């Protein structure tokens, strides 16, 4: 499903996506489609079909009307009728961190991707088959991007990793035991970190 488009890059792996609002696309996304920890793919401008693989790690709501207590010429409900050219300035932005790349042929690489996304690049949800392909590795599920996420020092990174592992446990039931060990380690870290433990 098409979620939105890239509007800004904070770094080579940190992007801001503006979510499409109703009326901009035939099937606008719902909040569940771009929730915390959602796997997404960002189209790359290259000769072959390939994407950056990313994770939604933050949400920002923009509302320019907040704090504006002045009079309005038209109520919000009548703007579509009396001012059809009115620009809707409210927006939902999500932060996406790139954790690798994936090609249409199923070749996956985890870690810092070589290529960067361009402004207005399409952002889409990844289906289960694509998530499995990205994490499939001999002999077990691959999580080579974990050090990349941990090294960014974001406050919610441990919760993000726990969300990922919960999802991967559903997709890789044969790896449930090893993923459970990792989940317990992350749970311990998330409980200890606020008290000065290692992150």
Written account of the structure:
- It is a single chain.
- The protein has one domain (2-142).
- The mean pLDDT is 86.
- The chain has a six-stranded antiparallel beta barrel.
- It has five helices and seven strands, in the order E-E-E-E-H-E-E-E-H-H-H-H.
- A hairpin with a 4-residue loop joins strand 5 (91-103) and strand 6 (108-110).
- With 199 residues, it is an alpha+beta fold.
- The chain is globular, with a radius of gyration of 19 Å.
- The protein has helices at residues 79-82, 128-135, 146-150, 157-171, 176-192, and strands at residues 2-9, 14-19, 39-43, 50-62, 91-103, 108-110, 122-125.
User: Percentage of helical residues?
Assistant: 10-25%
Q: Got a strand count?
A: 7
Shape: globular
Strand content: 25-35%
The number of helical segments is 5
- Unreliable stretches: none
**Termini separation:** 34 Å
Overall radius of gyration: 19 Å
The major pleated sheet works out as: 6 strands, antiparallel, barrel
SSE arrangement, N to C: EEEEHEEEHHHH
Find the structural class using helix and strand composition. Answer: alpha+beta
Q: Taking strands numbered 1, 2, ... along the chain, how are they ordered across the largest sheet?
A: 1-2-5-4-3-7
Mean pLDDT, as a whole number?
A: 86
Q: How many domains make up the coordinates? A: 1
């Amino acid at each position: 499903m098409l979620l939105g488009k890239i509007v800004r890059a904070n770094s080579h792996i940190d992007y801001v996506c503006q979510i499409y609002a109703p009326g901009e696309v035939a099937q606008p996304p719902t909040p569940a489609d771009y929730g915390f920890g959602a796997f997404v793919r960002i189209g790359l401008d290259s000769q072959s079909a390939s994407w950056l693989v990313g994770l939604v790690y933050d949400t920002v709501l923009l509302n320019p009307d907040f704090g504006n207590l002045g009079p309005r010429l038209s109520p919000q409900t009548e703007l579509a009728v009396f001012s059809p050219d009115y620009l809707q300035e409210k927006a939902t932005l999500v932060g996406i961190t790139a954790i690798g790349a994936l090609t249409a042929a199923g070749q996956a690489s985890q870690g810092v991707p070589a290529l960067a996304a361009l402004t207005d690049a399409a952002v889409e949800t990844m289906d289960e088959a694509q998530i499995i392909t990205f994490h499939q590795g001999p002999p077990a599920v691959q999580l080579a991007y974990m050090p990349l996420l941990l090294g960014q020092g974001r406050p919610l990174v441990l919760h993000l990793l726990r969300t990922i592992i919960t999802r991967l446990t559903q997709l890789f039931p044969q790896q449930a035991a090893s993923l459970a060990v990792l989940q317990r380690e992350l749970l311990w870290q998330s409980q200890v970190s606020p008290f000065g433990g290692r992150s």
